[in-house]
Amino acid sequence: MSIADLGSIGEFLGSFAVLVTLGYLAVQTRAARQATEFQTLMALNNMHSTVIGGIISTKPDALEILSKGNSGEPLDDDELNAYALMHNSLLINPYASILHAGPSPTRTRTLSGFDRLIKANWQNPNFVALWDAGFWSYLSEEQQNAIESHRGL
């Protein structure tokens, strides 16, 4: 076997090693991206949990109001404001934040869950009253359109 033959075998083994390395890097990059997505969603969850904790600490009956509002029972003005704040923290703001995130499988799965919740909320007269009153007018047009698209489904 000549040196040229050995060189050819070395080149072949080297190209195979490069392909294996590229495959390994692709797997590692995907895992890192998924970990970052998960950390971002957890940070959003923690932020909204903190807000909810603050609402509950200042208004101990907030969960009762949320339950009453979700059942479609009429709410007085004070209850409607508390209901809106809770709804903001639990549904609207997380949904708007995830809509803003870049495309990914985690985002798609998370959005599909939120889509089902928002579709169900359009059946709730308290949610509709808040929406029609412009309570979430601070959302971008894209975010408002995404929520509005579930109305009447």
- How many helical stretches? 6
**Count of β-strands:** 0
Mean pLDDT: 82
Radius of gyration: 25 Å
Protein described:
With 153 residues, the protein is mainly α. It has one domain. Helix content is 80%, strand content 0%. It has 6 helices and no strands. It has helices at 3-58, 62-70, 77-100, 105-121, 125-132, 141-148. Helix 2 (62-70) packs across helix 3 (77-100) and helix 3 packs antiparallel against helix 4. The model has no long low-confidence stretch (mean pLDDT 82).
Give a nutshell description of this structure.
This protein is 80% helix and 0% strand. The chain is an all-alpha fold and 153 residues long. Helix 1 (3-58) packs antiparallel against helix 3, helix 2 crosses helix 3 (77-100) and helix 3 (77-100) runs antiparallel to helix 4.
Quick tags:
153 residues, mainly alpha, 6 helices
Task: Tell me the layout of helices and strands.
Elements: H1 3-58, H2 62-70, H3 77-100, H4 105-121, H5 125-132, H6 141-148
Helix pairs in contact: 1-3, 2-3, 3-4
